[in-house]
Predict the 3D structure of the following.
Amino acid sequence: MIDLTGRTALVTGSGQNAGLGIARVLAEQGARVVINDIHRERAEAAASALASEGLDASAAPFDVSDSRAVQSATESLGEIDILVNNAGNAGAGEMKQSRFQDMVPEDWVPFVDVNLYGVMNCTHAVLRGMCEREWGRVITISSEAGRRGLGIGVSVYGAAKAAGINLMRHVSQEVGVHGVTANTIALGLMNNVPEEFAAPLIKAIPMGRLGSPADAGHMAAFLASEEAGWITGQVFSVNGGASAF
């Protein structure tokens, strides 16, 4: 049985949706969970909701794309044993789908800032401490858009997600000797998308349903566990079988 008692987990972008589901499952397995969100009220509300369930949760609002804010926040939090890089999409802004040829360079920035620089900032901030303590788990939440090409107007988002995947691969080779693992979860279509967008796509999912926050949470909890200590540098697709590779 997975037991994360005594571990502290920072889950970025966990004020809602999959991030909150991941935080909840980690806390249910005994971890002290730090809820991060760019919006203070959302982080605090999520932490309060988990605390009301008897779980150990606190809020740490900051912008993952701001390296100074990340460094300041993580220093104040103390030892972080588990980092889940979940913050994504377009950061604080709305994720708009658009063909690459119709975009301008300014449109690329929010996707790269949160999905690549956010991952780099948070990972860099906690990695040295993990190595010094000879134990750590870095888990980055990616997307099927980071593994394969899709014609749905998410090219820059997908490119940044793919970069996060490869960052984990390289980091895993650098820190494995210190008992630190670095892996990626590539999520498929989740249940936070509009029904009209999801309905035709569900037909291509062998399991016949969209993914839930708990689905993401259970995979993250396993990768955070002692049982997953010999797994690193890998990408795990959690997508209901939508792509069988």
